[in-house]
Amino acid sequence: MISFLWAEDENHLIGRNNDLPWRIPADLKYFKETTLGHPIVMGRKTYESIGKALPGRTNVILTRDENFEADGCIIFHTKDELLKWSKEQQKEIFITGGAEIYRLFMDVVDRLYVTKILHTFEGDTYFPEVNWDNWSLISSKPGVKDEKNPYDYEFRIYERK
Ligand SMILES: NC(=O)c1ccc[n+]([C@@H]2O[C@H](COP(=O)([O-])OP(=O)(O)OC[C@H]3O[C@@H](n4cnc5c(N)ncnc54)[C@H](OP(=O)(O)O)[C@@H]3O)[C@@H](O)[C@H]2O)c1
Fold first, then answer.
1. Domains of the chain with bracketed CATH
2. Which tens digits make up the pLDDT trace of 20-31?
3. Ranges of residues in the chain whose predicted pLDDT is under 50
């Protein structure tokens, strides 16, 4: 099964200057807890913004650059190659961005994990359009708002109808 996991603001903003537009440690913790033990798939730009393979997960990077190398990561160069690999996995696979990669896999994704931040930020990268008629909300949980996580936000999970 293929899932997307991302965080977006009220305008579907997800990035700024190849980084996140906000700092919400509780959301990073959610990312870690949800993806630990599962393969994560990301575009080369998102990988470079993180800068290293994340521990406890198979890290997969998509790039057109045939010479690209990254310590501890599996590299694929096409969507087809990645989908073939994904069918051999027994686990839920998390696609973790960025916008180009979400757009590329929108037609095959089964489940969406979105942290909806009820606030607007400045940035340059937006989540692609979703046809919400195709999706059912199966869970929604408010995040903790405190000094370190100073926004209202919700952890939402959708499944394809
Ligand atoms: N809020 C969130 O949850 C979240 C999550 C992830 C990322 N982000 C943010 O999103 C931004 C990055 O997103 P982005 O859309 O600019 O970049 P991206 O999707 O992370 O990476 C784009 C790269 O992926 C590779 N790629 C794309 N399509 C491909 C294909 N069909 N075949 C092979 N390789 C392909 C290319 O790499 P090459 O150029 O090397 O060929 C392309 O430059 C950053 O600001 C990041 O912080 C936010």
1. 2-160 (3.40.430.10)
2. 999 999 999 999
3. none
